[in-house]
Design a protein that fits this description.
The chain has nine helices and five strands; from the N terminus they run βαβαααβαβαααβα. It is α/β, with parallel strands linked by helices and 192 residues long. Bound molecules: adenosine-5'-diphosphate.
Length: 192
């Protein structure tokens, strides 16, 4: 079973993806986490991605498409994947359809997290404070200015994948402003 979660930064996709991963034996693939791992490893790819990510811009389509293509071929993805943060453009969505179509393992559902943008800015402030309080390093793109750009990039480049998936009949929407366990329940209801 392959699932895609879509929503602006801070919508709670990653939180839900982790819960679903445990519950359904799927593998969560976050292209953001994969790119941060490249940065931490100091790879050429990581070096190129860092400046774009810190500015809240997207990394080129061919880079993330290549990363995902390699990753979904691994044995831990055999039972299915929760795609978190990918696809982020219509181009990426088309590439993913092609890859999964070739494997004969299409997407079961695309879950859109509907959220209020101002609330996302508040959530980010809380997330930054909690990270600092825990003595951990704040992500390079976790600041208010970059978030505003990430939201703009979402509206302009990622939101067009919503009508794209609506056209395929796979799109479902959940209210991302509800408490975490309510969102989980809503998603589980969709997967029944
Ligand atoms: P969030 O969901 O909090 O916005 P992510 O961890 O998913 O953050 O992504 C962080 C950054 O990584 C993005 O702003 C972008 O620069 C880059 N990135 C992640 N996934 C993709 C993707 N599919 N295509 C292009 N860039 C991506």
């Amino acid at each position: 079973m392959n699932i895609i979660v879509i929503g602006p930064p801070g919508a709670g996709k990653g939180t839900q993806a982790k819960i679903l991963e445990a519950e359904y034996g799927l593998k969560q693939l976050s292209t953001g986490d994969m790119l941060r791992a490249e940065i931490a490893a100091g790879s050429d790819l990581g070096k190129k991605a860092k400046a774009l990510m810190d500015a809240g811009e997207l990394v080129p389509d061919d880079v993330v498409i290549g990363m995902i293509a390699n990753r979904i071929a691994q044995p831990d993805c055999a039972k299915g994947v929760i795609f978190d943060g990918f696809p982020r453009t219509v181009e990426q969505a088309k590439a993913l359809d092609k890859m999964l179509g070739e494997k004969g393992k299409p997407i079961k559902v695309v879950i859109e997290f509907a959220v209020n943008e101002e609330e996302l800015v508040n959530r980010l402030r809380t997330r930054i404070q909690q990270t600092i309080d825990a003595g951990q390093q704040v992500r390079g793109d976790d600041n208010e200015e970059t978030l505003r750009n990430r939201l703009k990039v979402f509206r302009e480049q990622t939101a067009p994948i919503i009508p794209y998936y609506k056209g395929t009949g796979l799109l479902k929407t959940v209210d991302g402003m509800l408490p975490i366990d309510h969102v989980t329940q809503a998603i589980k209801a969709l997967l029944k």
